[in-house]
Design goal:
Length: about 280
């Protein structure tokens, strides 16, 4: 259990990256400096980050990505792993370590929205110093984010961003306290794909706090019009049949781009839209 007076790892990472509003960052650094092992932990994390970047310099990452794409496109190469329900998706599990190393820098960020007041991350809902809230903000909601590989860097996309066939994307989610969920997509061809869980009939466990990458990157196929991702959440495990049936109904609807899923009682949802264009 994390000591109430010891900076947790997720906050330590944000301090190291400077990914906090100025007032929160100053307060967090001040508390960290007064912890017995605080400065040493921060120095160790920063040293580890430097070592990772030295081991994976941008030019090397770019060469490796291009080489793996070339091998995947070679007629003699084995076909990339694909979902049985959607063979046009190209899953890129081998790219995950490279993408994860690059995207963790942009994923670690404050969860507060523009409407939420900045606050000392060490102050709980009752205003007691040193007690963390279960979620970083009372207003934090589940969300799904999409990140695109752009040369030697990653790009955090906004909802409704343009995309095209061949884009390599990686998904992340914020469960905001919910324990179970499913991540799926609906495209302009009317196809539904479950990304997490990839197999099985029940929902997948979610990390309740923080932002988490899915264990695969994906190459967008040539489905026209759009690609829309959904995060469906609940506090307890649930059957996927009702969720997937709702997704198939929506996929066949002319409102698939904007309408919500019609879900069983007790399930919440959020979505992320990519507007597809021709390459």
């Amino acid at each position: 259990m994390t000591s109430p007076h010891r900076t947790p790892d997720w906050l330590l990472e944000r301090i190291a990256l400077g990914e906090l509003p100025p007032d929160e960052l100053a307060a967090a650094r001040d508390r960290l400096s007064r912890e017995p092992d605080g400065p040493a932990r921060l120095a160790a994390l920063e040293a580890d980050s430097r070592a990772t970047l030295e081991a994976l310099p941008p030019d090397r990452v770019a060469r490796e990505v291009k080489a793996r794409f070339a091998r995947a496109d070679s007629p003699a190469a084995p076909r990339a792993e694909a979902s049985p329900s959607r063979p046009s998706w190209r899953f890129l599990p081998a790219l995950v370590p490279v993408l994860a190393a690059a995207t963790l820098v942009v994923l670690v960020r404050p969860g507060a929205s523009s409407q939420q007041e900045a606050h000392d991350p060490w102050t709980g809902t009752g205003g007691t110093p040193g007690v963390l809230e279960p979620t970083r903000s009372k207003g934090l909601q589940p969300r799904i984010d999409v990140h695109r590989q752009a040369g030697t860097r990653t790009e955090h996309l906004t909802d409704g961003a343009p995309a095209q066939a061949g884009d390599v994307v990686q998904l992340s989610y914020t469960a905001a306290g919910h324990a179970q969920g499913v991540i799926l997509s609906v495209d302009g061809r009317g196809t539904v794909t479950s990304h997490q869980p990839a197999l099985g009939d029940t929902s997948a466990p979610l990390e309740r706090s923080g932002t988490h990458l899915l264990p695969r990157a994906y190459e967008l196929d040539d489905a026209p019009g759009f690609e829309r991702f959904f995060l469906v959440t609940a506090d307890n495990p649930f059957e996927l049949e009702g969720v997937m049936a709702a997704a198939r109904v929506l996929a066949a609807s002319p409102e698939a781009r904007t309408a919500p899923l019609t879900l069983p009682t007790g399930l919440g949802q959020t979505s992320f839209l990519l507007e597809k264009s021709s390459p």
